[in-house]
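Page 42, continued from yesterday. The earlier attempt failed because a stray header line got pasted into the input along with the sequence. Redoing it now with the clean sequence only.
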Amino acid sequence: QVQLAESGGGLVQAGGSLRLSCAASGRTFSNYAMGWFRQTPGKEREFVAAINWSGSTTSYADSVKGRFTIFRDNYENTVYLQMNSLKPEDTADYYCAADLTVIIKTIQDEYDYWGQGTQVTVSS
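This time it went through. Structure tokens are written below.
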């Protein structure tokens, strides 16, 4: 069992930046692949970014590639999502997820553990 807690969401103007954090507790963090997903009302949760257990491999949705960066600190048991050049269409609730596997995962159904989410609002 692992518990996840996101933080860092908020209101930002278009073109601005935010850094989301996801603190994990309960099991050995480095055993887990981690991902970020987002959801807006009435829409399916969508993949944003993912990282493997060591941080050596990452994957991004096309919509955020070049603007968002996922990275992790296994000593701090935390995964981050650095979001730059934010757009109004990035407005959503952002969730981090964990899966007990060494490989990267991009499908939400493959993740076993989820945080409660943090809200990001980008104004135009």
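Notes: The chain has a mean pLDDT of 95.
Reminder to self: strip header lines before submitting.
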